[in-house]
Amino acid sequence: MNNRYRRNPRARAARLRLISELRDRRERVVAPFKRGIFLVPVTITSLGLLAGFYSLISSINGHFVRAAVMIAFAFICDGLDGRVARLSRTSSPFGVEYDSLTDVVAFGVAPAVLAYTWALKPLRLVGVIIAGLYVVFAAFRLARFNVQTGSVDKRRFVGLPVPGAAAMIAGLVFAYHYFYLDAPQMLVAVIAPLTAALGILMISRVPYPSFKSIDFYHRAPLAVTATVMVVLTCLVAVPQVTACVLATAYVLSGPFLMLAGEQMTAKMPVLRPSEPVAQKARETSPLSSQQG
């Protein structure tokens, strides 16, 4: 065996190159785990996952407001983990995959179960189908986001982000109980088509604003600063109604951008047969929130 490589310099060079590539790949995977601070973003992501799980338990037990609060908490965790990972330079392929799995539970399964137990249960099989399709579309949306990362405009999302759809359902729960409404028939008539519409928007090509490019370390116009202060004040004074209004405004912002003539032209990346899709997404994607 050794004589073969000695007689064939090309085979020996190819073998050394393969060993070097394997070492480089191992280093890219193992290096993030050697940093102690890597624990911080993973812990935040785990808290979001546990919040999604507790939201499921609360929905099953009929505690709908608590379930919505847990989704809101997961939403905050989803926004923090990516920023912490980027600031601490602890982004990794593991973080990307873990964040996506967390989003499926916290913003896919949990809102669907909340919508079903809260409003869609009287529809029986139809309600199960609507909630089930919501989960499937949320998973499709997250998978597409991971594949398309790095090939679309960072200022825009392709389709409604999964956390935005979950925030819409949670916001409606907040508003419904804040105003002490008691209209089961109206609730079914509103939530059934809305849940279906949110699922369709997630897998659509409707452009949605992305706030990842916002720089919090530079001066902002006075109007923007005033708007942020008003929103924060409303969140403190009437958080339930404000959350519903903000979620509704964001869901409607996508169709508004499309009507204004903005279109998403990003396509699924074309990869060589030997290049895994997940590897391509990881090479162009830091640990980031939806996710997607």
Q: How would you describe this structure to a colleague?
A:
Helices cover 72% and strands 2% of the residues. With 292 residues, it is mainly alpha-helical. It has one domain (29-210, 218-269): Four Helix Bundle (Hemerythrin (Met), subunit A) (Up-down Bundle), CATH 1.20.120. The chain has a two-stranded antiparallel sheet. The longest helix has 28 residues, at 93-120. The N and C termini lie far apart (50 Å).
Measured between the Cα atoms of the first and last residue, the distance is 50 Å
General form? globular
Q: Which percent bin holds the helix content?
A: over 70%
- Could you give the order of strands across the largest sheet? 1-2
State the CATH class: Mainly Alpha
Summed up, what is this model?
The protein is mainly α. 72% of the residues lie in helices and 2% in strands.
